[in-house]
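User: My collaborator sent over this chain with a note saying "see what the structure looks like." That's all I know about it. Can you take a look?
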Amino acid sequence: MTDAIAPGEGTAGTVGSVVRTCIGCRERAEATTLVRLVAVRGTTPVAVVPDPRRTMPGRGAHLHPDPRCLERARQRKAFGRALRVEGPLDLDAVVAFLPPATNHPGPPSPDRNRSTRS
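Assistant: Without extra context I'll predict from the sequence alone. Here is the result:
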């Protein structure tokens, strides 16, 4: 028997790595580098909370631990779509969980300080 890889499998990283998409920047990354988020129902608004152990039940969404990705996800209204919940969402637990700044490269920011040619 051969060890054939099905199309689309094992092409995004090392063999056996799980790849997910950040809901903020839409970049694919290994799941271990992303924060898993879940919606906790029963509260109004629905609370979005981090799941660092990746064991909470329910649908998960993934986000780089970077405030820029959080802001992009907010702007795109990606939390509700990714978690399949409607209505207002409480993101306080996510904001508190994320570090103030990280080394996630992310897409480059527009260069607003371009030098002009003389």
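A starting point for your reply to your collaborator: The helical segments are 67-76, 78-83, 92-97.
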